[in-house]
DNA sequence: TTTT
DNA sequence: TTTT
């Protein structure tokens, strides 16, 4: 997982809608969130307060996606840490379009924050651990040996299926299942 | 304000106590916060969940300190962005002691988050300096106008006194007023 | 400048091209950068190393834009801190297009890093506004004149005492004082 | 690895000395770094430039520690991402002492940056992956005991399939594959 | 103790 | 289009 560069996004905002959850052929969860952050300032001419809201498209993978689907609702406040990714696609007219999203994958962080409309108050922070490229490796986490058994798979869900499934999902069916 | 290096801390946590507010001779506010962040994990041997709480000493200056004093309470959840700073001091026995704090000054960010015990739900994000007054400008950039006159002082409080006061406080009475 | 939410991007990457600099009618500088970050990983099936590069559109305002134009070149490595912003525009066919950019404005941070193709090694970190030590400078913000018209130029380089003083230091003596 | 709160430190700075590397009984590497970040500003009274350097104690675990030991030198510039941790200890007089460190563990990030005195220019970013299961371990680092004795070696280099495989890739072919 |  |  060596990389040249840092590509990090940190958002604290509220969901504009309930999360949209879908699954890859391999059972990996993917959650799409629309997150609002807003800024207010006093207009220098009118002296009135103005506000601008920025909407962020967030795509969450794996266990975090499941948690998002279960606990986040329209209005929920959430902390998210991910990376920027731009994907190209064609609309119905065959026109090239580009969409930039915040990807919260196995390296990302999600923390539910209190006070959202639909959210549970308080909230836990989940970190998927390990990195996107390591999927294959995570697969075996806790499978043998003593150490850390119960490590990843427990965090990630049931019977060490979760991460692996997801991984397969990503590598095998990525093109078909995920629209970016 | 050129600098070599980046020194940034980002915390999301809860106050262990009400903020302690004090003022410099020049009226600048200083807030001391004790912030808890905690981590949970499953012990690999026992399989039990374990938890560790880390306590952070946070020192906030200026307008943000005033806001902290007014709106944050024991239990409040808050987002903070500041920098690390270690100061040396002597205890009563003349022993050297070092304390590392997270400094949230004019470059820092504070955002109250919903759901804290004492906190107001929801919460606004305050950034001490500059900034958002200029957002309108960015949109208009190049359009001019007299915009943002009164910029900083408006952000910082009344009659452009705030930041200046604070500034004086820091430069003139720093040694006397602030114990680090 | 209260806001609900945090919208923060941190990038460390290399410029794909020389910065493109332009100026507003009021003399405010704007720099457009194309920044690459890349990830490498070992493919779990083939065992081969794979790499994916992400390109980021970065727009820098004000004094930082001037510094970028002067010191950054194709290949330079840079640390950037800004916010996400998506703008809508129409192409020649009148089709709606959306572009997401990383905005490095008066709240942003830029630090040149050593080792880039075109960059000088070493490098200083510039933060557009103030910092704790700059209190005195901020002091005068908005106090007189048409300051800050034209977006950033006044905050950052105009005739004021405050930030400008500091800025003058940078803009006037940059070549002499700063070794990169 | 659920947690309440975010505890994140981001540093870009230079090493004041060569890294100090040690190993746990289980072969896990631990690197201690002393990292400088500095700020400059123009004194508002004297008009002179002033500078303040902050020194950060950084403790790196696991594979990243090995890489630090191999590639970082006094003067090297590095990007680090970790968490704050304060530990209590007694000096020879039995006095309680507290030391706050930046912990770069399996959730941390390290990226070597170009231009350092001892560093090779360029540099790759390493992310250890995986997570908080290791927190308990960090407490024991170097002391051994049973838990995570060896710190990360199990996660990162022991007999497991998962992460270790990946790690092997890096440790075995590092010199050949990675050009820094 | 670094770096500029 | 960068970098390694």
From TrEMBL, chains A, B, C, D:
<comment type="subunit">
    <text>Homotetramer.</text>
</comment>
<dbReference type="Pfam" id="PF00436">
    <property type="entry name" value="SSB"/>
</dbReference>
<dbReference type="GO" id="GO:0006281">
    <property type="term" value="P:DNA repair"/>
</dbReference>
<comment type="function">
    <text>Plays an important role in DNA replication, recombination and repair. Binds to ssDNA and to an array of partner proteins to recruit them to their sites of action during DNA metabolism.</text>
</comment>
<keyword id="KW-0234">DNA repair</keyword>
<keyword id="KW-0233">DNA recombination</keyword>
<dbReference type="InterPro" id="IPR012340">
    <property type="entry name" value="NA-bd_OB-fold"/>
</dbReference>
<keyword id="KW-0238">DNA-binding</keyword>
<keyword id="KW-0227">DNA damage</keyword>
<dbReference type="GO" id="GO:0006260">
    <property type="term" value="P:DNA replication"/>
</dbReference>
<dbReference type="InterPro" id="IPR000424">
    <property type="entry name" value="Primosome_PriB/ssb"/>
</dbReference>
<keyword id="KW-0235">DNA replication</keyword>
<dbReference type="GO" id="GO:0009295">
    <property type="term" value="C:nucleoid"/>
</dbReference>
<feature type="compositionally biased region" description="Low complexity">
    <location>
        <begin position="123"/>
        <end position="169"/>
    </location>
</feature>
<dbReference type="GO" id="GO:0006310">
    <property type="term" value="P:DNA recombination"/>
</dbReference>
<dbReference type="InterPro" id="IPR011344">
    <property type="entry name" value="ssDNA-bd"/>
</dbReference>
<protein>
    <recommendedName>
        <fullName>Single-stranded DNA-binding protein</fullName>
    </recommendedName>
</protein>
<feature type="region of interest" description="Disordered">
    <location>
        <begin position="115"/>
        <end position="180"/>
    </location>
</feature>
<dbReference type="GO" id="GO:0003697">
    <property type="term" value="F:single-stranded DNA binding"/>
</dbReference>
<feature type="short sequence motif" description="Important for interaction with partner proteins">
    <location>
        <begin position="175"/>
        <end position="180"/>
    </location>
</feature>
<feature type="DNA-binding region">
    <location>
        <begin position="55"/>
        <end position="61"/>
    </location>
</feature>
């Amino acid at each position: 997982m060596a990389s040249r560069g840092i590509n990090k996004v940190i958002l604290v905002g509220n969901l504009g809608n309930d999360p949209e959850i879908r699954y890859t052929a391999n059972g990996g969860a993917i959650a799409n969130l629309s997150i609002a952050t807003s800024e207010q300032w006093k207009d220098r001419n009118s002296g009135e307060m103005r506000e601008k809201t920025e909407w962020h498209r967030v795509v969450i993978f794996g266990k975090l996606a499941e948690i998002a689907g279960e606990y986040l609702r329209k209005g929920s406040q959430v902390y998210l840490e991910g990376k920027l990714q731009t994907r190209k696609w064609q609309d119905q007219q065959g026109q090239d379009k580009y969409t930039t999203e915040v990807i919260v994958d196995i390296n990302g962080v999600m923390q539910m924050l209190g006070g959202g409309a639909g959210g549970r108050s308080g909230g836990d922070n989940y970190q998927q651990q390990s990195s996107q490229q390591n999927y294959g490796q995570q697969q075996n986490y806790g499978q043998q040996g003593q150490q850390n058994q119960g490590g990843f798979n427990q965090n990630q869900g049931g019977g060490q299926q979760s991460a692996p499934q997801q991984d397969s999902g990503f590598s095998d069916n990525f093109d078909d299942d995920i629209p970016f």
